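Entry 14. Structure prediction run on the chain below.
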Amino acid sequence: MFMQGILKGDNWRQRIGSPLALARLKIFKTHNRPLNVFLAQASRAVRDVFSGRLTYASAPIEDVDWSLFDIVALDYYRAGGAS
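Output returned:
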């Protein structure tokens, strides 16, 4: 949602579009393929210059190829209501 190139739109508001847009993402999951293409390219580039462990924290709606990473996590801080 926050990065250009995975979903259509110039900013996160355009990429989400409407309250139904997030529901469509959860159902159709069309964002996962371009996301995993990007993550594969990014992880290769990082490993070329960084010898440490690579980590990624996914959003709940992302189906990530976890084999690319050494440490994995799920980012649920946006899942709850405002406090």
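The radius of gyration is 14 Å.
Filed with the rest of this week's runs.
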